[in-house]
């Protein structure tokens, strides 16, 4: 065993690293310092062992390519567990394992799993280093790809150890690829021990433990006990023509366009008026009550881990610039000149390339069942520093966070939910958040049109009983002197032929303008049983050529459709039994009454 001098005197940390060393039996231990020299050294090493391919440095300066194991391309929710003392504490929406069983099972897989490998110790901060919002984690990993991704997604190294000091609290995050065997893969959360153990996967959401595991599941649990919130939300600043910036957060289920909304470019009509948009975060928000009475948000991450396919100069020009350098591309297609390509990119399809799994690919290629083979995996990703985003907010690293005026919930609903509506107040907003869902499309298993409920877009990320989570939302509303207003949006409503009625992307700013004007009491609205809906004429449509009938359809509320939805909501809420807050049942009954 080769050991470097340790850069800390934190006894609990040193003891933990020693224990893990005994368990995993690595060949050497490297403490990550976060320096530029270290970055270069690790990149060179990653290239020499084939973990990364250096991309064409003229076209993709500072960027690298990675292919993951074909069985390891997405988060594995079925292998993700919340390991609380009782099953009830994990609740009906999580997989549960007792801590004893979980440690026992994982220990067997971790035993000797790093033989011949380097064990990296990564001190990282979620949130600006030293902010009172921030949390420190230490990730132990045997994946150099994980180290280089954590470098982008979080703040790492000696600065973090300095803030941790000799006695500071940290989340123990243990990760090993082991042998990437899906039968020996486990993503385990021990909220009561402030610990995460992940083994058998190298994929981002399973292996970059600062992101979903710490910043949502563990942080959510800590937030509940300490009186703050960890949410699956983007954070966006909108500057109006007077130069005032107002901030919103938005929670949409995965793959509903959070990154695109977080980086949107104002459409012509609104740009001419003087609107600007500032990105604070695209995936996670930590929210706290500020002494000034507002709810403040920080983005705990330092980078974007975004889905690549479909990213182009029309859908998200800011993302295109963000990923033009210093980016790690995972599972896209690789061209012979060492540049990358994906479905829906600005470039036409290459005549030939290597697909995400490394096989020869050409346009029109089909598999044995005659299905087209994609060059880039649909969940291929970019990892890029947030600081490279052209519209990154000057306040994105403000240790105090930004004050939130509005919270938006949304899902993918072909019918029922109008383009936008404002809820009647905090508790009604929580009820609406608890009903968030997306309709199944033909691409998913199950009945088309059936709703998959995903309250607050947190189903895969809530680290404790979701009934208690709803209760926490209700309590936060009571305790916040100036809570944000809560809205619901739906960009995905379709006409009878299944065609989207709303153009989406940059045009969504028209909806956000209305939202913020409602927050300031500047526009009126139509009161419907579900909430306040815009008056068509108060919705700025300058420069958008949309048939009037489309806007009517987009804003319509059809009571019969909602009544059908209520039956499904009720069945869903009942899952939480006595944990489900009475306040939300009250809102449910109010809605039922209003619908008549
Ligand atoms: C993500 C997700 O990767 O929500 O951000 O799945
Ligand atoms: Mn996400």
Compact overview of the structure:
The protein has 17 helices and 32 strands. The strands form 7 sheets. Strands 1, 2, 5, 6, 7, 8, 9, 10, 11 and 12 form a 10-stranded mixed beta sheet that branches. Strands 13, 14, 15, 16, 17, 18, 26, 27 and 30 form a 9-stranded mixed beta sheet that branches. Strands 3-4-20-25-19 form a 5-stranded mixed beta sheet, with helices on one face. Helix 1 (11-24) links the parallel strand 1 (2-3) and strand 2.
Q: What proportion of the residues form beta strands (DSSP E)?
A: 15-25%
The CATH architecture of the largest domain can be named as Alpha-Beta Complex
Mean pLDDT: 95
C-alpha Rg (nearest Å):
24 Å
Termini, distance in Å? 73 Å
Helix content: 25-40%
User: How many separate helices?
Assistant: 17
Q: Which class of secondary structure composition applies to the elements?
A: alpha/beta
Number of strands: 32
Bound molecules: oxalic acid, manganese (II) ion
Gross geometry: globular
Low-confidence stretches: none
CATH fold-level label of the largest domain: Phosphoenolpyruvate Carboxykinase, domain 3
Number of domains: 3
- Largest sheet, if any? 10 strands, mixed
Q: Can you tell me the CATH class of the largest domain?
A: Alpha Beta
Based on the structure, what is the oligomeric state of the protein chains? single chain
